[in-house]
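Onboarding guide, step 5: your first structure request.
Type a short instruction followed by the sequence, for example:

Predict the 3D structure of this protein.
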Amino acid sequence: MNMLMPGKLRSVRFSFIWLSKLRRRIGSVWLVIAIVAIVAPAVRASPPNLLVILTDDQGWGDLSAHGNRNLSTPHLDSLARDGAQFERFYVCPVCSPTRAEFLTGRYHTRGGVYATSAGGERLNLDETTIAETFRAAGYRTGAFGKWHNGMQYPYHPCGRGFDEFYGFCSGHWGDYFNPMLEHNGKLVQGEGYCADDFTNHCMEFMESAAREGKPFFAYLPLNIPHAPMQVPDVFWNRFKDKSLVMPHRDADREDVAHTRAALAMCENVDWNVGRLLEKLEQLQIAEDTIVVYFCDNGPNGWRWNGDMKGRKGSTDEGGVRSPLFVRWPGKIPAGTVVRPIAGAIDLLPTLADLAGIALIGKKPLDGISVAPLLTDPEQAEQWPDRTIISHWRGRVSVRNQRFRLDDQGALFDLERDPGQRHNIAAQHPQALEQLRLAQQQFKREFRNIDQDTRLFPVGAAEFKYTQLPARDAGATGNIQRSNRFPNCSFYTNWVDPDDFIYWDVEVLAPGRFQVEVYYTCRAADVGAELELSFGNSAVRATVTEAHNPPLRGMEHDRVPRPESYVKDFQPLSMGIIDLPQGEGRMILRATKMPGQQVIDFRLLMLTRVDEGTGKVE
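The system replies with structure tokens like these:
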């Protein structure tokens, strides 16, 4: 029995009791008509649930379904076997742009996403998201994992249509075992390996919604196989000494140890997908749930990827081609292969179309619904050609069904030359001109995309927490970031009391806020006095407790990482600050430094304490 039906069936039962009393008055014929009128809406097909799985830095080739014999992904492969797979599905070269295109159905440049950190990953607040669309249709919405489209509310997932969020909002994380995470804005401690933890919370969300009889939209953006390359022993042990029978097309560029770690992480993804599919069966809602799986960009290393050119960060095929599997038993024929090109921009209109819900955004979409290709594969024979743009850091590549024009002006026939080895621009001037015009138009429209004047929002009245990490801060003088990649970094070398850390912010609503600074401090440096100020408001506190844990993370790494190592930072309560509404610079400075340095700084947490405001966990 479908678990979404019991509430409706109860109301039907009460209607029958009423009808039995009515039978004596209206007769059997009219009774039958009345029964049909009441029962028909109850037994009409319920809105389908949505489970969208997005992986991080997993390439098209990291699946046994695509012929990679270096690993085994039976659960992911089953989605292609039991549903539909797209031959040529395109995402962006890196993480946050793909997420923005999935969320909005529009190119990431239209939503203000131009980078992967320090504010450039934020999705403009006037964009309408897929979560808002499904929530408006009565769905419960939840996201579990890596968000990467803005941290401070209303950029936060809870401000973009999600009822529930568990994970982290940054672009990558420094440790995947029992890390600091957040739940609806409140900092919490994760449990176990993060991909397993995110999957656990997703399954709990699905089960809760099913018990309530409500359709759900569950978004599971896993953060693997993105570096640091960490994975539980049970998966690593299968790969640590494994011979790889399928190398990258330029084998001398491949880091075999990194490939082994990435493939071990991909098998963890597959295991978690298996758990999700089993949970749908247990809840008896598998046939009522659309399962979607895709990746956010090309592989994060030179490894086997179907002989394609490029990897993560590239606008060539290898950097932007992703798997897309869509399963809906009984509605999408098993084994369907979709040959017309499609992209992440198509997911919002397609899933809304499949679910039978209305689009609520007021801006035109770049994506189109490809639902007819899923439910009626014969539609592909009359499907019109189109172009899809791939963009990153000023590089623009354009793809239609047959050709790709790369960012250097070379043209490739992808049907005959999928590896992009032969420039045939001279032989196809008409195709070259068509794609070049699209390329030039895109460049003109978005040539100033990185000129960002947005401030970091603080203190929204409807949300309790504002997190201001080192990632989003600037610093003066000698203060140094722990790594050139800001996402999970901290500030160190605060050796001059005249230096300070700052954020350019807009306080959205005035109020009183509890201030916590997450810090480390050597015993010799205890006694530093910190001041947080904004305009004429300020609060001060003295560091009275030494907390000097070592750097960590390397103990779980399978190969050396490019990102920052982490520490176990602890909070220092600075008291209450009264913040007026308005724009300005929020500054964390040292008013006293008795030792050789102040502190190492990870993040600032502001918690609204006004009564009657703020969303509580």
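Each response can be followed by summary notes, for example: Residues 551 and 567 are 5 Å apart (CA to CA).
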